[in-house]
Amino acid sequence: MGYGSIYGYQVNRKLTEEEKKYHLNPKEKSKSPPMGSLSIIKMNSTFLECVDRFFDDKGFLTTLAGMILGIFAVGAIMMILAFIPSPVGFGGEMPIWGYFVGTVGLVFCWFFGSLLFKLLKWETVGLTAMDKTINKRVKFSAGFTHYPIRFNRKNRKVYVHQLNGKIFVTKWEDIYFTLHKEARAEWVVRGLILDDDGETVLDAFDLPHTDNWVDGRERQTLTIFWEFVRRYMEGDDNDVRKLLPEIGRTMNVSNRKETFWEGYKTMLDNATAGGPLLLILINIPLMFGYSIGRKIAMMCNTIPDWPARIEAECAIEPNDPYLVDETHPPPAL
């Protein structure tokens, strides 16, 4: 089972007219300035490694299920108190609405408790009737802490961690990049793996940056990370050097799990990037609560690693002048 089949990508099909219309040629410079977009784990002369598209959404449904579970747990407690004599309980004098709330609470407490347990144990949850975006996040609330993508500019290979634990490897020149529209006008840069006929889609993966974009308007913000990767893979050493100040903050998740405050800062930065002061003030407490579910999900996850064969192919040169990782921060702008 491939990367695309788990994420819900449509594979074993022909390219759509939209995919052809919004095809991104790696040889052509876009209008977007290159930016790291809080997505880069490490970069050097050999490879660029980034997080996956849903990294900043990690733990979304764990938080949601936990909140709903807490709400209906109150109803369940009310039902229990109805049968406990006063002064501790209601002593059989609870109003009718209390019994209704308690009954509903017991049912939903069982359902969401089971759902939360399955999320943390990486089991498939039967929510196929719900929005596909939510269903993706259900599957993403457990498993690996992240699903890294590695671009090797020397051997021209791209390595993609799949949700099933396998690693997909392909040549940079064999990837058909295009813009793809998700639900609610959210767009993403998607890499398609085509058959030898150049038309049949066999697999797919997304770059870690999305944005809302309406056809016909400028799309600079949508393709900022694409332009970063494109210049890294297509440029020379001087181009790589120029990219260093554009990395911004790196994601320190290569061999460790992020801390609570690191996850909180990542989500807050992503939610408020370029936004007004009011948006920042609203998201400060909101993202704090969100970070609790994210931390729970991260604690139940496994840190991904690369096989020795791939690490050998991506060996970093001694004294690499372009090395950026958790111990080598990028230069300031």
Keywords:
alpha+beta; 5-stranded antiparallel sheet; 333 residues; 10 helices
How would you sum up this structure in a few lines?
By secondary structure, this protein is an alpha+beta fold. It is built from ten helices and ten strands. The strands form two sheets. It has a five-stranded antiparallel β-sheet.
Please give the structural blueprint:
Layout: H1 3-7, E1 13-14, H2 17-21, E2 23-24, E3 40-43, E4 47-50, H3 60-81, H4 96-120, H5 132-140, E5 149-152, E6 157-161, E7 167-171, E8 175-181, E9 186-194, E10 200-212, H6 224-234, H7 237-243, H8 260-272, H9 277-299, H10 308-313
Antiparallel strand pairs: 1-10, 2-8, 3-4, 4-5, 5-6, 6-7, 8-9, 9-10
Structural category is alpha+beta
Find the count of extended strands (DSSP E, 2+ residues).
Answer: 10
Q: Which strand order do you get reading across the main beta sheet?
A: 1-10-9-8-2
Query: What pattern of helices and strands is seen along the backbone?
Result: HEHEEEHHHEEEEEEHHHHH
Q: Determine Rg (CA atoms, Å).
A: 23 Å
β-strand percent reads 15-25%
Contiguous helical run count: 10
Shape: globular
Give the mean pLDDT: 79
Account of the 3D structure:
This protein is an alpha+beta fold and 333 residues long. 38% of the residues lie in helices and 17% in strands. It contains ten helices and ten strands. It has a five-stranded antiparallel sheet with strand order 1-10-9-8-2. The protein has a five-stranded antiparallel sheet with strand order 3-4-5-6-7, covered by helices on one side. The longest helix has 25 residues, at 96-120. The two termini are 43 Å apart. The model is unreliable at 1-6 and 121-142 (pLDDT under 50).
